[in-house]
Amino acid sequence: FSSREHEKVGELVPKCADVLITLGVRSRKIAKVALEFGMNEEFIFQYDDVMRAGRELQNYLQPGDVVLVKASQSIRAEKIVEEIMADPELASELLVRQDEAWKKR
Q1: For this protein, what is any one GO molecular function term (predicted)?
Q2: Rounded Cα–Cα distance for residues 34 and 5 (Å)
Q3: What is the Cα–Cα distance from 73 to 10, expressed in whole angstroms?
Q4: What pLDDT shows up at residue 104?
């Protein structure tokens, strides 16, 4: 994503999301712009640790919620999805990059 694309996402988030959790340095622009466009700072969280982000997300999930997880491959966002899955034992069947080599990274 370019800087401008991150800005566009930040502009849209307050219109369609209740909570914003960002990962890594590049995504901080999304949080900054979301705040500028009216998102409540109380519901904007910025992390560098993918597992911590997943645990934080669990504090907000309710039945029927929709979660969009978008990240570069290097962030390893599938770990967030595994953290919040109803059936994490199915991760190897449902998620990308679940072989042992990837899991060690």
Answers
A1: acid-amino acid ligase activity
A2: 13
A3: 20
A4: 60
For residue 103, give the nearest of 92, 89, 94 by alpha carbon: 92
Number of residues that make up the chain: 105
Q: Is 21 helix (H, G, I), strand (E, B) or coil?
A: strand
Angle at 15 between CA 13 and CA 19, to 5 degrees: 50
Residue 43 contacts by C-beta under 8 Å, 6 or more apart in sequence? 18, 19, 20
d(CA 72, CA 69): 10
Q: CA dihedral defined by 67, 68, 70, 76, rounded to 10 degrees?
A: 20
Structure tokens given for 100: 């042992």
Q: Which residues contact 2 (CB under 8 A, 6 or more apart)?
A: none
- Domain extents for the chain? 3-103
Instruction: Give the rounded percent of residues in the chain with a pLDDT score beyond 90.
Output: 34
